Amino acid sequence: MLRLFKTIAILEGISYLLLFANMLIVKPNYVDVYKQLLYPIGMSHGVLFIGYIFLAIILKASLKWDYKTFGIIIIASLIPFGTFYVEKKYLN
Prior knowledge:
Elements: H1 2-29, H2 31-62, H3 67-76, H4 82-89
Helix pairs in contact: 1-2, 1-4, 3-4
């Protein structure tokens, strides 16, 4: 389960960065490409985000995380590069 959570954390972080890149780099230059990429990137990010939160809740009990650690892991999903930090610091 921990290996799956690590994978989801990395993929969620990548999808988050791709979503930002699509907004900040692609949209100003190529509006049609932006619209074509928005749904697949946004949907994959949404599914990965839900999976990340769901697995964090499950792992909180099994790994006996305290509320501070759990809070950091949840808040990291909202910050760019946050899931990479969590994967490196808390999941090794």
